[in-house]
Amino acid sequence: MMYILRTIIFNLAFMSGLFASKKTEEPMIDVWVVSGGRASLPCLPKPKLGGDQPLLVLWYRRFSSSLPIYSYDARVGDFSNGVRWWDEVALGRRGYFVPSGTPSLVLEPVHVRDQDVYTCRIDYRVSKSTTTRVNLTVVVAPGPPVVIWEGREMVGTVGPLQENQPTELTCRSVGGRPAPSLTWWSEGRELPLLHTHSSLDPVTGTSVVEATLSVTAKRELQGGSLTCYARTPTHLNASEGAIIPLRSASVSLNITLSPVEVRILEPDPIIATSGSTVSVVCRALGSHPPADLSWWRGRRSLEPHVTHAVSSSGRF
Length: 316
Description:
Elements: H1 2-16, E1 29-34, E2 39-42, E3 54-61, E4 68-73, E5 83-86, E6 95-98, E7 104-107, E8 116-124, E9 130-139, E10 146-149, E11 152-154, E12 156-162, E13 166-174, E14 181-186, E15 189-191, E16 195-200, E17 207-216, E18 225-231, E19 247-256, E20 261-264, E21 282-285, E22 296-297, E23 300-301, E24 310-311, E25 314-315
Parallel strand pairs: 1-9, 12-19
Antiparallel strand pairs: 2-7, 3-4, 3-8, 4-5, 6-7, 8-9, 10-11, 10-13, 13-17, 14-15, 14-18, 16-17, 18-19, 20-21, 22-23, 24-25
């Protein structure tokens, strides 16, 4: 029975002129969805005569456009109770037609191989057939970005670097479709890139995207965060399900900084009586790591009598 139904569908499609060359093609509808999600491919009834009823809906895929992959036959009974047929190889149980609201072919879950151009054809009781074309883009999330410094993958901190030393940081993301765009940011400001590079493995189809940043180890960058974001481009009309959250990787710079000031806090000269104890404070500001302070009397170190304390400004 299924073979007979399929034969009838194919013959009807052929006799009606599946893709009449004289017809004006409708604008293509773009649908974007994340792999594994739910795609709804609209099929818009547009009968030439008002009040005309759709009878048969046929779905085709570009790579096999001569044969339908799905049919919905409502030539007997109401349109909401049509007979369904689907191509087990192309769709299996993942595809089903929703005749109510905006009639649509739903694919769930969507596979990467489903990306293609689909054509929906509707035959009516009286009007000529109409078609709707849908370009389905299946978005694949990119791999998490990683930061490369001097050929090594870095996590957390880059360095140590000398003050004013120039260096390069490369952000790399592997995979994803379409390939992600990479940007570097610091304190809410996008940083200019030195260069970008992308490549595609011809065998696996895996993309690799890199964005390189040139940075100078300035004092104000010590401990600050540099963040690389991997953003998957999506169509302006993409469904909410096709929006992939930003993926990011952050590092901070470990910069060796000299003190900006070294000062003895007690007045000079120090006045003390014989046998008394005098506490004298030497403070160094702005160093990283904390400055190594020592006291000397002539050529003799006073280290056994020295205590140290560290604050966020350095050692003092």
